[in-house]
Specification:
By secondary structure, the protein is α/β, with parallel strands linked by helices. The chain has 9 helices and 24 strands. The chain has helices at 92-95, 97-101, 111-120, 137-149, 164-170, 186-193, 198-209, 228-241, 266-279; strands at 2-3, 7-9, 15-17, 25-26, 37-40, 43-46, 51-52, 54-59, 73-78, 107-108, 125-128, 153-158, 176-180, 213-220, 247-251, 284-287, 297-298, 305-307, 309-310, 313-314, 319-320, 323-324, 334-335, 344-345. The N and C termini lie far apart (41 Å).
């Protein structure tokens, strides 16, 4: 165990956790909603520090991040636990393990070993993913700090429910994030995720203010969030963050507590992408439809394909010094420059 970051001591040995927007008040010998932060005699501890339940070398595109060092590899890590209760969670067996089964498992791996593994596997970044990285903030923070010193980037794949204090704490070492924007009503977040919408929107705004590279993902779920009105509202909010913000609209497959719904039709995802483009977003990507034209990165100025993709595989990158190879337009994102030059960011 490791003493937790970001909590306040209250009376009667209670504590308030300030890590995520639930801001759980936790009595002595009890845990927060995430199931991995426990109050012991008035001190809050992380129960998952260094307890890794999953590691994998992934294409950065799998996060998904399409405009952040495309074509590179990310060393992905996760612990058990989550502060959401999403009915469609694809990783429920590990995300809900502490809350539903009171179990915490994981292999003991130090931050130093994670960084060394990333280097050994030629990974440009470390991705804190699969479950919610906010709930293992102490471990992510220590790892990210070491990685940053070694020139390795750090990426959160997150539900965006962290507090402002938590985001500002990790910010010096956080280079990019993919944030799930699961719907656009409080009812959706309460019913499907057992959370609230507004803190997620606030996180997205602050990430942009802090100059963290942000991409947004929405899983399109039939009858739940697939109406044109909801999709347009999401797209318009993302546009308010900046026209350069990529939006990934992804196809749902029945899982966990949503086995009664059909998979999202390809046509629904294509329509969602079209709405994003109509609203004015420069980069809108279709997910879970290998071979669809929506997987490619296009130049918003001349319309040429700059990064052809099939699934997570790239054919080539037609971006030079962060500009379109064909017309010279500045292409938003974070890209490696030619040898001898520093990283490009537009």
């Amino acid at each position: 165990m490791k003493e937790a970051m970001l909590y306040q001591e209250l009376s009667d040995k209670r504590v308030r956790c300030d890590l995520c927007s639930h801001r759980c008040v936790i009595a002595d010998s009890k845990r927060g909603i995430c199931g991995v932060r426990e109050n012991k005699d008035g001190t809050l501890y992380s129960l998952v520090y260094g307890k890794i339940v999953a590691t994998h070398v992934d294409p950065i595109e799998k996060k998904p991040l399409f405009n952040f060092h495309p074509g590179t590899r990310a060393f992905s890590v996760a612990t058990v636990g989550c502060n959401f209760k999403c009915a469609h969670c694809q990783n429920a067996e590990i995300s809900q393990m502490p809350a539903e089964h009171n179990r915490i498992i994981g292999q003991e791996i130090s931050p130093e070993k994670i960084v060394k593994a990333a280097e050994k596997n030629d990974c440009k970044s470390i991705a804190y993913t699969y479950t919610e990285p906010t709930i293992f903030m102490e471990y992510a923070y220590d790892t990210a700090m070491l990685a940053s010193k070694r020139g390795i980037k750090n990426v959160f794949v997150t539900n965006g429910y962290m507090t402002e204090k938590a985001l500002r704490t990790i910010h010096p070492y956080l280079d990019a994030a993919n944030v799930d924007l699961k719907g656009f009503t409080e009812e959706h977040y309460q019913k499907i995720c057992a959370a609230r919408l507004k803190p997620v929107l606030d996180t997205l705004k602050l990430m942009k203010e802090l100059d963290i590279w942000v991409e947004v993902t929405t899983l399109i779920i039939p009858t739940i969030n697939d109406s044109d009105e909801v999709l347009r509202n999401i797209a318009e909010f993302i546009l308010s963050l900046g026209v350069e913000t990529p939006w990934h609209v992804s196809r749902f497959h029945p899982t966990y507590k949503m086995l009664d719904l059909p998979p999202t039709s390809v046509q629904s995802v294509i329509r969602a992408r079209q709405i994003g483009l109509e609203v004015g977003l420069r980069y809108v990507y279709s997910g879970n439809i290998p071979g669809d034209e929506g997987e490619h990165t296009y130049c918003y100025n001349c319309g040429k394909v700059l990064i052809p993709r099939y699934g997570y595989q790239l054919e080539e990158i037609r971006i030079e010094d962060s500009r379109c190879k064909y017309c010279g337009a500045a292409i938003d994102g974070v890209y490696a420059k030619k040898p001898g030059r520093s990283e490009g960011r537009l």
